[in-house]
Amino acid sequence: MSEERTRLAAPMFEIENLHAEIDNREILKGVNLTVNEGETHALMGPNGSGKSTLAYVIAGDPRYEVTEGSIRFQGEDILEWSPDERARKGLFLAFQYPTVIPGVSMANFLRMAVTNVRNARAEAAAAEGGSVQPMTPREFRRLMREKMALLKMYDSFATRYLNEGFSGGEKKRAEILQMALLEPKMAVLDETDSGLDIDALKVVSEGVNNLSGPNVGMLLITHYQRLLNFIKPDFVHIMMEGRVVESGGAELALKLEEMGYEGLRGRFAEARSA
Fold first, then answer.
1. Which residues pair with 66 in a beta bridge?
2. Exposure string (b/e) for 77-113, b if CB count within 10 Å is 16 or more?
3. Could you tell me the residue range of the domain that residue 208 belongs to?
4. pLDDT top residue among 213 and 268
5. Where are the beta strands (DSSP E) in the chain?
6. CA 149/CA 107 separation, integer angstroms
7. Distance between CA 113 and CA 127 in Å, rounded?
8. Is the separation of the CB atoms in 249 and 236 below 8 Å?
9. Where are the beta strands (DSSP E) in 163-212?
10. CA-to-CA distance for 61 and 206, rounded, in angstroms?
11. Alpha-carbon dihedral of residues 115, 119, 125, 129, nearest 10 degrees?
């Protein structure tokens, strides 16, 4: 089988036996997770279970060292890729705590990010005999206004410095706006519901739902069922002590809400000791 056929036959995104540590402290202890095109997965778990660590490792945060296992995207191991290469190839992380960058406007930041990704895709398409047209400034402005309207953002938002003075809801909308413009193939949303009131949660969730599709995989990291009332996952995974301990359909989140993390922790403690 050719390399191209092997790549197409593989799951879009696959984590296998992933171990990772920071400051010689192991946090991920054998994570296994597969996301295919068009699927939305929710990853739930208590504080300290390793959810955000997993998101940072996927994004290539250099503070974390992968000691075992693999992360494959479209059949390729990404662990040797730099963070910017991962982004150019189609991976996206919406941060729980987005960085404030004074002096850089939203519009300039987004234009640079979109241009870099579009140029990388053009180079990849040219290498395979195809073509991707560069995005003109006029096209970018039109697309940005369209996506901002989708997220109910005022035009003046584009002139503000990145995340400076933003409310929690504005920061999360800015992250989803980035995702809308970058059009990733695999998106990881790290506690996008954190710090949002119900109105902001509805707007952000609507934006995420509008960006999902048959060619996009999504991993939603959250503590609470309430996000999943607005974004319906195909699969739910429960993470504890650095591992995915249970997986199921959307009903698993309802079961977790009823049982609570302590109840689930006790059940698995009994299973290990049996």
1. 20
2. ebeebeeeebbbbbbbbbbbebeeeeeebbbebbbeb
3. 3-273
4. 213
5. 13-22, 25-35, 40-44, 65-73, 76-77, 91-94, 101-105, 161-162, 186-190, 217-222, 235-240, 243-248
6. 14
7. 22
8. yes
9. 186-190
10. 29
11. 130
Q: Which amino acid is at 84?
A: D
Tokens of 104: 């850089």
Structure confidence at residue 5 as a pLDDT band (50, 70, 90): very low
Query: CA-CA distance, 28 to 224, in Å (whole number)?
Result: 21
pLDDT digits (tens, 9 = 90+) for 124-160: 777 777 776 777 888 889 999 999 988 888 889 899 9
The total number of structural domains that make up the chain: 1
Q: Tokens standing for 257?
A: 């809400």
Q: Report the 3 state secondary structure along 152-171.
A: CCCHHHHHCEECCCCCHHHH
The single-letter code of the amino acid at 30 is G
Give the domain CATH number at 168. Answer: 3.40.50.300
As a whole number of angstroms, the distance between CA 208 and CA 235 comes to 16
Which tokens in the block code for residue 131? 């073509």
Q: What is the mean pLDDT of residues 97-104?
A: 90
Cα–Cα distance measured from residue 157 to residue 15, given in angstroms and rounded to the nearest whole number: 37
Q: How many residues does the chain have?
A: 274
Structure tokens at 256: 């977790």
